[in-house]
Design a protein that fits this description.
- The chain is an alpha+beta fold and 148 residues long.
- The chain is built from 3 helices and 9 strands; from the N terminus they run E-E-H-E-H-E-E-H-E-E-E-E.
- The strands form 3 sheets. Strands 4-9-8-6 form a 4-stranded mixed sheet. The protein has a 3-stranded antiparallel sheet with strand order 2-1-3, with helices on one face. A two-stranded antiparallel sheet has the order 5-7.
- Strand 8 and strand 9 form a beta hairpin.
- The longest helix has 31 residues.
- The chain is elongated, with a radius of gyration of 20 Å.
């Protein structure tokens, strides 16, 4: 089935691309979640509109992403969690926890799906976390995990 992607789908393509996928994948996953629309003859106009909007948005986002990167890398992010005597956490720190800590530190709003934790944070200390703000911009920040 031919579909037009309205959002970027990893491993498939970016917004505005026309791709061929299996019928069930399009019908049961992509279309109901709003990631794609069915391709029609008149759909080419939609493809062109999506590409134009994406191009304008990408330019603005790149400038905004660099600005947000500067704000994020200047933050002192502390995350208070419950831990045992040896400094091991009860559980681990998640992307949502990092987003809340950034917000509490006065930083910009970040999407939790953009936060990448290289290895699970299960101990007290300072850990590196990266945030993908744009295809070309990635911010690295230090998260200080302290015992609550």
């Amino acid at each position: 089935m031919k579909i037009i992607l309205t959002h970027e789908v990893p491993g498939l393509g970016g917004a505005g691309e026309v791709v061929e996928v299996k019928d069930g994948y399009a019908r049961n996953y992509l279309v109901p979640r709003g990631y794609a629309i069915r391709w029609t003859k008149g759909g080419q106009k939609d493809v062109d509109a999506i590409r134009r909007a994406r191009k304008v948005h990408a330019i603005q986002t790149l400038e905004a992403a660099n600005e947000v990167k500067g704000k994020l890398e200047g933050l002192q992010v502390k995350l208070a969690v419950r831990s045992g005597d040896a400094g091991r956490l009860f559980g681990s720190v998640t992307q949502a926890d990092v987003v809340e800590a950034v917000k509490a530190a006065g930083g910009p709003v970040v999407d939790k799906r953009a936060v990448a934790i290289a290895s699970p944070i299960k101990t007290v200390g300072t850990h590196k976390v990266s945030v993908k703000l744009h295809a070309d911009v990635q911010a690295n920040l230090d998260v200080a995990v302290v015992s609550a």
